[in-house]
Amino acid sequence: MPRLESLSSLSPSDTCWIPSSTDTYGTFDAFCSERRYNIVESLSADPFRASFDIFPPSQNQTCAKIRPGTFIVFALSTAELAQDYPEDSADYRTICQYTPGRYLGLVTSTFARWNEVEGSTEEDVIVHFVSKDTPQPSVVADHFVPIFPVSSTAPEDNTALHTDILFPWIGYKQWTTLGVRLRNHKTNPSSLVFELRNEDFERFEDKAGEDYSRLETVEATLDDETKDTLARLSVAPVALPAEIWFDIRNHPDIKEPRCFAADVDTLESIIAGCMPRDHVSSALDEE
Predict the structure, then answer these.
(1) Which residues pair with 145 in a beta bridge?
(2) How far is Cα 215 from Cα 177, in angstroms, rounded to an integer?
(3) Rounded-to-10 torsion of CA 19, 204, 179, 172
(4) How far is CA 59 from CA 13, 30, 167, in A?
(5) What is the pTM for the complete model shown?
(6) pLDDT tens profile 88-124
(7) CA 265, 268, 272, 275 torsion: positive or negative?
(8) What is the distance between the alpha carbons of residues 235 and 128, in angstroms, rounded to a whole number?
(9) Interval 57-75: pLDDT, tens
(10) Residue 132: its pLDDT value, please?
(11) What is the SS3 assignment for the chain?
(12) Crossing angle between the packed helical segments 258-272 and 90-97, to the nearest 10 degrees
């Protein structure tokens, strides 16, 4: 079974925040081939805004495990990507030996469905990056909201986002227009979860909607390099398998968002060099 199969219609729930249109999910290869699409499709403004709508409960609702407004640490799941290859194969080992970076982000949308074949719930999340860095390129340099506590050297800012439990670092920025779509394959739970206050999550929604709209208006004026850079760090129409941690502390080497694109490039290269999944081994493979 492909690691990222197509999602059918999703059951709406007041705890599952669902894009208005049915998204198509493919393999990791499909993600790589779709990463550099048109910037307007990349930003996907309508589905993004719809993800902030709360749908009425359904009799057959499937509830997500992760609440929007939750900060998480995440990493690409090489173990899941390798499942399409035999465990005793060199391809399986090569994929698993790669150690992707860990990244910090805010879950801004969650949606789930029941997989009858696997007998389990499949959960996808949209995550917007959190970083000490200012978003790049320059066209999105102000597409962020500071997270409290802010640096004592920074100008006083009443717009900073507050969490229910004090955020563990100083001077971080919540990006509003750049992020990633993940499929949750492994969750590391914790009794300590960092969540935005409800009113602060609403303020994030408002700022994100404004920033997406502004970015759409200048799309036609952007050069190809800028469009490509934005597309590589924008929420894609396909989900990537990921491992997720709720306790965002004690991760000593959190990577900056720009490194995420390099992770994808590296894994794309590794998988491209693997045997086709339907390859039948022969004596020629040993020569």
Answers:
(1) 174
(2) 9
(3) -160
(4) 9, 33, 37
(5) 0.78
(6) 999 999 999 999 999 999 999 998 888 888 788 889 9
(7) positive
(8) 8
(9) 333 345 668 999 999 999 9
(10) 95
(11) CCCCCCCCCCCCECCECCCCCCCCCCCHHHHHHHCCCCHHHHHCHHHHHHCCCCCCCCCCCCCCCCCCCEEEEEEECHHHHHHHCCCCCHHHHHHHHCCCCEEEEEEEEEEEEEECCCCEEEEEEEEEEEECCCCCCHHHCCCEEEECCCCCCCCCCCCCECECCCCCCCCCEEEEEEEEEEEEEEEECCCCCCEECHHHHHHHHHHHHHHHHHHHHHHHHCCHHHHHHHHHCCCCCCCEEEEEECCCCCCCCECCCHHHHHHHHHHHHHHHCCCCCCCCCCHHHHC
(12) 170
Question: How far is Cα 134 from Cα 143, in angstroms, rounded to an integer?
Answer: 8
**Distance of alpha carbon 62 from alpha carbon 42, whole angstroms:** 27
Q: Dihedral sign for Cα 218, 223, 225, 231, please.
A: positive
The residue to which tokens 């359904």 are assigned = 58
Is 39 within 8 Å of 227 (Cβ atoms)?
yes
Calpha distance 111→92 (Å, rounded) = 30
Cα 128 vs. chain centroid, distance in angstroms? 7
Query: Which tokens sit at 162?
Result: 């507050």
188 has which bridge partners? 245
Q: Specify the pLDDT at position 7.
A: 25
The residues, any chain, with a CB within 8 Å of residue 65's CB and separated by 6 or more, are 110, 112, 121, 123, 184, 187
Query: What is the CA 259 to chain-centroid distance, rounded?
Result: 13
Q: Scan for tokens 């994100």, then name that residue.
A: 208
Torsion of CA 199, 207, 101, 69, to 10 degrees: 20
